[in-house]
TrEMBL record:
Organism encoding this protein: Mycolicibacterium sphagni
Residues of the N-acetyltransferase domain: 156-297
Keyword match Cytoplasm: no
Name of the featured protein: GNAT family N-acetyltransferase
Entry keyword RNA-binding: no
GO molecular function terms attached to this record: acyltransferase activity, transferring groups other than amino-acyl groups
InterPro entries cross-referenced by the UniProt entry: Acyl_CoA_acyltransferase, GNAT_dom, Rv0428c-like_C, SH3_Rv0428c
Record key words, sorted: Transferase
Length: 301
């Protein structure tokens, strides 16, 4: 059976009908209400629909409410400002970011303007080649005509922000200190982690247990977004609520800084993180993925 998103998610499920039925397959769209022993989906028109897990052919998670391409573009713009790398430039509607190869987000080009087309790919490839970097494209759905499958398929999940109180066990720092970097464990320079364009950034930590990063930036439509990233819990401290307390503190910090909405970018196969954010009220907004620009242009670096 295809993997199902958490209960409460909105999905489209294609499944088999009883033998001899014509057509043999059908679809149901609605909210997942249960997954065991049968899948239960609440639809707008048919009420509750039950589907045997063994009959499921395909599952696609949908945004809870319809999302316009303009809303995807606005959110992706705010997210790019929150993780911009150490060098940025615009190329025909694409924002190009570089940071010495540290992290995919900080070393990829994203189409943020209506004018962004595939005609810009050759100069994008050249720009990254000059820096000794692969030319990765960060492609949010519906913002580019590129249909390549790509890698690192990601869910962008969002929630509304309300005023909250930070957890006293969580420390907030202006910069990642040595202890923060030790818990984070990834080899990412501080100048990459602290980079933000026209926004604020903070680093949360429960000493030796968990760390995370928050950044508030403003989308072109005026929405103040909090982006939560770099969340890491030490192996020996997992499943003790550290990530939840850390994220709740970052959400409270973002609200205090004027953010009205928050987002996370989660790899689609990271089920523990998806479940955590889902429990905190985050729901799917859109998907994105990374595609090698060289594979589209036939050029070599």
């Amino acid at each position: 059976m295809a993997s199902l998103p958490p209960v409460g998610s909105r999905v489209s499920i294609r499944y088999r009908l009883p033998a001899g039925t014509t057509p043999p397959l059908t679809d149901v769209i609605g909210e997942v209400r249960a997954v065991d022993p049968v899948i239960v989906v609440r639809t707008k028109s048919d009420g509750l629909v039950e589907v045997s897990p063994g009959d499921v052919v395909a599952v696609r998670e949908l945004s809870v409410v319809p999302v316009r391409a303009s809303a995807i573009r606005a959110l992706e713009h705010a997210a790019a400002l929150a993780w911009p790398g150490t060098e940025q430039t615009w190329q025909d509607g694409w924002l190009l970011r570089a940071a010495g190869g540290y992290t995919s987000r900080a070393n990829s080009a994203v189409p943020l303007d209506f004018s962004a087309t595939i005609a810009a790919l050759p100069p994008i490839v050249d720009w990254y080649r000059q820096r000794g970097l692969p030319a990765w494209l960060a492609l949010p759905e519906r913002l580019s005509p590129i249909r390549a499958e790509g890698v690192k398929h990601t869910r962008v999940m969002v929630t509304e922000l309300a005023a909250g109180e930070p957890d006293p066990a969580v420390t907030l720092l202006d910069r990642p200190d040595a202890a923060w970097l030790t818990t984070y464990e990834r080899d990412v320079p501080a100048q990459v982690l602290t980079a933000v364009v026209d926004g604020e950034v903070v680093f949360a930590a429960e000493p030796t247990a968990a760390v995370g990063r928050g950044a508030v930036t403003v989308a072109p439509d005026g929405t103040h977004w909090l982006g939560i990233s770099a969340v890491r819990v030490s192996d020996e401290h997992r499943r003790r609520g550290h990530a939840r307390r850390l994220c709740q503190t970052l959400l409270a910090w973002g609200a205090q800084r004027g953010a009205t909405r928050a987002y996370v970018q989660v790899l689609s196969d990271n089920e523990p993180a998806i479940l955590l954010y889902h429990s905190l009220g985050f729901r799917l907004h859109h998907h994105h993925r990374y595609v090698d620009a060289v594979s589209l242009t036939g050029r070599t670096l």
